[in-house]
Amino acid sequence: MNNQIKQLKEQLCWASQEIYQRNLVNVGEGNISVRVNGKKEMVITPSRNDYRKPIPEDMVHLTLSGKIIEGNKKPSSESSLHRVFYNARSNVNCIIHTHSPYTSSLSIQHKGIPVIFEEMLIFLGGSVPCAKYAMSGTAKLGKNALETMGNQNAVILANHGSLVVGKTMEYCVNITQLIEKMAKIYVLANYSSDIKKIPEEKQVDFRLRFVDEFSTV
Protein backbone atom coordinates (compact mmCIF):
# COMPACT_ATOMS: atom_id res chain seq x y z
CA MET A 1 0.00 0.00 0.00
CA ASN A 2 1.57 3.30 -1.06
CA ASN A 3 1.46 6.40 1.12
CA GLN A 4 -1.32 8.13 -0.85
CA ILE A 5 -3.66 5.14 -0.58
CA LYS A 6 -2.86 4.78 3.11
CA GLN A 7 -3.79 8.43 3.71
CA LEU A 8 -7.03 8.07 1.75
CA LYS A 9 -8.04 5.01 3.75
CA GLU A 10 -7.34 6.88 6.97
CA GLN A 11 -9.44 9.77 5.66
CA LEU A 12 -12.35 7.38 5.13
CA CYS A 13 -11.96 6.10 8.68
CA TRP A 14 -12.10 9.66 10.01
CA ALA A 15 -15.19 10.50 7.95
CA SER A 16 -16.89 7.24 8.97
CA GLN A 17 -16.56 8.08 12.65
CA GLU A 18 -17.63 11.68 12.08
CA ILE A 19 -20.91 10.88 10.36
CA TYR A 20 -21.67 8.15 12.91
CA GLN A 21 -21.05 10.49 15.84
CA ARG A 22 -23.25 13.12 14.18
CA ASN A 23 -26.11 10.57 13.98
CA LEU A 24 -26.18 10.57 10.19
CA VAL A 25 -25.79 6.79 9.79
CA ASN A 26 -26.30 3.56 11.67
CA VAL A 27 -23.76 0.75 11.54
CA GLY A 28 -23.79 -0.95 8.15
CA GLU A 29 -25.69 1.67 6.15
CA GLY A 30 -24.58 4.41 3.77
CA ASN A 31 -21.13 4.70 2.22
CA ILE A 32 -18.20 7.07 1.70
CA SER A 33 -15.57 7.25 -1.03
CA VAL A 34 -12.62 9.34 -2.16
CA ARG A 35 -10.93 9.71 -5.55
CA VAL A 36 -7.30 8.62 -6.00
CA ASN A 37 -5.57 11.74 -7.32
CA GLY A 38 -4.31 11.46 -10.89
CA LYS A 39 -5.75 7.99 -11.50
CA LYS A 40 -9.05 6.46 -12.57
CA GLU A 41 -9.39 4.88 -9.15
CA MET A 42 -11.19 5.40 -5.86
CA VAL A 43 -11.22 4.10 -2.30
CA ILE A 44 -14.59 3.27 -0.73
CA THR A 45 -15.96 1.98 2.54
CA PRO A 46 -16.73 -1.76 2.65
CA SER A 47 -20.14 -3.38 2.57
CA ARG A 48 -21.71 -3.28 6.05
CA ASN A 49 -19.15 -0.75 7.27
CA ASP A 50 -18.76 -0.47 11.05
CA TYR A 51 -18.63 3.30 11.51
CA ARG A 52 -17.84 2.98 15.21
CA LYS A 53 -14.39 1.45 14.74
CA PRO A 54 -13.35 1.49 11.07
CA ILE A 55 -9.83 0.35 10.16
CA PRO A 56 -7.84 1.31 7.05
CA GLU A 57 -7.35 -2.31 6.02
CA ASP A 58 -11.11 -2.71 5.50
CA MET A 59 -11.35 0.16 3.02
CA VAL A 60 -11.47 -1.03 -0.60
CA HIS A 61 -9.29 0.36 -3.39
CA LEU A 62 -10.79 -0.15 -6.85
CA THR A 63 -10.79 1.24 -10.38
CA LEU A 64 -13.52 3.48 -11.72
CA SER A 65 -14.62 0.54 -13.86
CA GLY A 66 -15.21 -1.51 -10.69
CA LYS A 67 -12.14 -3.79 -10.58
CA ILE A 68 -10.85 -4.37 -7.04
CA ILE A 69 -7.19 -3.48 -6.58
CA GLU A 70 -6.87 -4.01 -2.83
CA GLY A 71 -9.11 -4.69 0.17
CA ASN A 72 -9.93 -7.29 2.80
CA LYS A 73 -13.70 -6.92 2.34
CA LYS A 74 -16.28 -6.44 -0.39
CA PRO A 75 -16.71 -2.83 -1.52
CA SER A 76 -19.97 -1.08 -0.71
CA SER A 77 -22.86 -2.32 -2.81
CA GLU A 78 -23.31 1.29 -3.94
CA SER A 79 -19.85 1.57 -5.52
CA SER A 80 -21.46 1.97 -8.95
CA LEU A 81 -23.31 5.04 -7.66
CA HIS A 82 -20.00 6.64 -6.71
CA ARG A 83 -18.27 5.62 -9.95
CA VAL A 84 -20.93 7.39 -12.02
CA PHE A 85 -20.02 10.72 -10.40
CA TYR A 86 -16.26 10.28 -10.52
CA ASN A 87 -16.43 9.39 -14.19
CA ALA A 88 -18.74 12.29 -15.04
CA ARG A 89 -17.40 15.12 -12.85
CA SER A 90 -13.63 15.54 -12.66
CA ASN A 91 -13.82 18.05 -9.78
CA VAL A 92 -15.59 15.59 -7.47
CA ASN A 93 -13.00 14.21 -5.06
CA CYS A 94 -15.23 12.84 -2.28
CA ILE A 95 -18.75 11.41 -1.95
CA ILE A 96 -20.95 10.61 1.05
CA HIS A 97 -24.27 8.74 0.97
CA THR A 98 -26.35 8.46 4.15
CA HIS A 99 -29.78 7.35 5.34
CA SER A 100 -30.25 10.10 7.93
CA PRO A 101 -33.80 10.22 9.38
CA TYR A 102 -35.28 13.54 8.26
CA THR A 103 -33.71 13.43 4.80
CA SER A 104 -34.96 9.86 4.42
CA SER A 105 -38.45 10.95 5.45
CA LEU A 106 -38.47 13.33 2.49
CA SER A 107 -37.07 10.62 0.24
CA ILE A 108 -40.08 8.37 0.82
CA GLN A 109 -42.33 11.26 -0.19
CA HIS A 110 -40.14 11.90 -3.26
CA LYS A 111 -39.69 15.48 -2.07
CA GLY A 112 -36.67 17.76 -2.25
CA ILE A 113 -35.79 20.72 -0.02
CA PRO A 114 -36.48 24.20 -1.45
CA VAL A 115 -34.23 27.16 -0.73
CA ILE A 116 -35.32 28.06 2.80
CA PHE A 117 -31.97 29.31 4.21
CA GLU A 118 -29.22 31.39 2.59
CA GLU A 119 -26.58 28.81 3.58
CA MET A 120 -28.17 26.38 1.12
CA LEU A 121 -27.27 28.77 -1.70
CA ILE A 122 -23.73 29.34 -0.47
CA PHE A 123 -22.75 25.76 0.34
CA LEU A 124 -25.05 23.70 -1.91
CA GLY A 125 -25.72 25.99 -4.84
CA GLY A 126 -29.46 26.02 -4.25
CA SER A 127 -32.21 23.56 -3.42
CA VAL A 128 -31.76 19.83 -2.81
CA PRO A 129 -33.86 18.06 -5.46
CA CYS A 130 -35.12 14.49 -5.28
CA ALA A 131 -34.05 12.06 -8.02
CA LYS A 132 -36.36 9.49 -9.58
CA TYR A 133 -36.44 6.10 -7.92
CA ALA A 134 -33.98 3.41 -8.97
CA MET A 135 -33.01 0.17 -7.23
CA SER A 136 -30.09 0.17 -4.81
CA GLY A 137 -26.80 -1.07 -6.19
CA THR A 138 -27.60 -0.22 -9.80
CA ALA A 139 -25.91 2.16 -12.23
CA LYS A 140 -29.36 3.64 -12.89
CA LEU A 141 -29.40 4.97 -9.33
CA GLY A 142 -26.24 6.93 -10.10
CA LYS A 143 -27.48 8.14 -13.48
CA ASN A 144 -30.73 9.43 -12.00
CA ALA A 145 -28.84 11.16 -9.19
CA LEU A 146 -26.35 12.80 -11.57
CA GLU A 147 -29.09 14.04 -13.90
CA THR A 148 -31.18 15.48 -11.06
CA MET A 149 -28.28 17.08 -9.17
CA GLY A 150 -27.49 19.33 -12.14
CA ASN A 151 -24.80 21.90 -11.32
CA GLN A 152 -25.16 21.53 -7.56
CA ASN A 153 -23.54 19.26 -4.98
CA ALA A 154 -26.36 17.32 -3.35
CA VAL A 155 -29.43 15.28 -4.15
CA ILE A 156 -32.03 13.21 -2.32
CA LEU A 157 -32.41 9.64 -3.58
CA ALA A 158 -36.04 8.52 -3.73
CA ASN A 159 -36.84 5.93 -1.01
CA HIS A 160 -33.18 5.90 -0.05
CA GLY A 161 -31.47 8.92 1.54
CA SER A 162 -29.06 11.64 0.45
CA LEU A 163 -25.92 11.95 -1.68
CA VAL A 164 -23.31 14.71 -1.34
CA VAL A 165 -20.30 15.32 -3.59
CA GLY A 166 -17.46 17.76 -3.04
CA LYS A 167 -13.83 18.71 -3.41
CA THR A 168 -12.85 17.79 0.17
CA MET A 169 -13.95 15.23 2.72
CA GLU A 170 -14.47 17.86 5.42
CA TYR A 171 -16.87 19.68 3.11
CA CYS A 172 -18.85 16.51 2.37
CA VAL A 173 -19.15 15.62 6.07
CA ASN A 174 -20.34 19.11 6.99
CA ILE A 175 -22.73 19.37 4.05
CA THR A 176 -24.28 15.98 4.82
CA GLN A 177 -25.05 17.33 8.27
CA LEU A 178 -26.35 20.60 6.80
CA ILE A 179 -28.79 18.73 4.56
CA GLU A 180 -30.14 16.75 7.50
CA LYS A 181 -30.58 20.01 9.44
CA MET A 182 -32.44 21.61 6.50
CA ALA A 183 -34.55 18.48 6.07
CA LYS A 184 -35.51 18.51 9.75
CA ILE A 185 -36.53 22.17 9.60
CA TYR A 186 -38.51 21.59 6.41
CA VAL A 187 -40.28 18.49 7.72
CA LEU A 188 -41.25 20.25 10.95
CA ALA A 189 -42.35 23.36 9.04
CA ASN A 190 -44.63 21.24 6.89
CA TYR A 191 -46.95 20.92 9.86
CA SER A 192 -47.86 24.46 8.78
CA SER A 193 -49.04 25.51 5.32
CA ASP A 194 -47.22 28.83 5.55
CA ILE A 195 -43.66 28.14 4.29
CA LYS A 196 -41.85 31.10 2.72
CA LYS A 197 -38.93 30.42 0.36
CA ILE A 198 -36.16 32.96 -0.26
CA PRO A 199 -37.18 35.11 -3.27
CA GLU A 200 -35.35 34.23 -6.50
CA GLU A 201 -34.01 37.78 -6.97
CA LYS A 202 -32.29 37.58 -3.59
CA GLN A 203 -30.49 34.32 -4.44
CA VAL A 204 -28.05 35.45 -7.14
CA ASP A 205 -25.15 36.73 -5.03
CA PHE A 206 -25.27 33.68 -2.75
CA ARG A 207 -25.20 31.31 -5.74
CA LEU A 208 -22.12 33.11 -7.08
CA ARG A 209 -20.33 32.43 -3.79
CA PHE A 210 -21.09 28.74 -4.24
CA VAL A 211 -19.68 28.75 -7.78
CA ASP A 212 -16.49 30.49 -6.61
CA GLU A 213 -15.80 28.27 -3.61
CA PHE A 214 -17.57 24.92 -3.70
CA SER A 215 -18.90 24.02 -7.15
CA THR A 216 -17.71 20.68 -8.59
CA VAL A 217 -18.87 21.40 -12.16
CATH class: Alpha Beta
| Contiguous helical run count | 7
Q: Could you tell me how far the N terminus lies from the C terminus, measured between alpha carbons in angstroms?
A: 31 Å
Low-confidence stretches: none
Shape from CA axes?
globular
Q: Give the class from helix and strand content and strand pairing.
A: alpha+beta
According to CATH, the homologous superfamily is Class II aldolase/adducin N-terminal domain
Reading the helices and strands in chain order gives HEEEEHEHHEHEEHH
Would you count the extended β strands for me?
8
The major β-sheet equals:
8 strands, mixed
CATH architecture: 3-Layer(aba) Sandwich
Widest sheet, order of strands: 4-3-2-1-5-8-7-6
Mean pLDDT: 94
Provide the β-strand percentage band.
Answer: 15-25%
Instruction: Name the helicity range.
Output: 25-40%
Structural description of this entry:
This protein is of the alpha+beta class. The chain has one domain (3-213): L-fuculose-1-phosphate Aldolase (3-Layer(aba) Sandwich), CATH 3.40.225. It is built from 7 helices and 8 strands; from the N terminus they run H-E-E-E-E-H-E-H-H-E-H-E-E-H-H. It has helices at residues 3-21, 79-88, 101-107, 118-124, 139-149, 169-189, 204-213; strands spanning 31-35, 41-44, 60-63, 68-70, 94-98, 130-131, 154-157, 161-166. Strands 4-3-2-1-5-8-7-6 form an 8-stranded mixed sheet, with helices on both faces. Helix 2 crosses helix 5, helix 3 crosses helix 6 and helix 4 packs parallel to helix 7 (204-213). It is globular. The two termini are 31 Å apart. The mean pLDDT is 94.
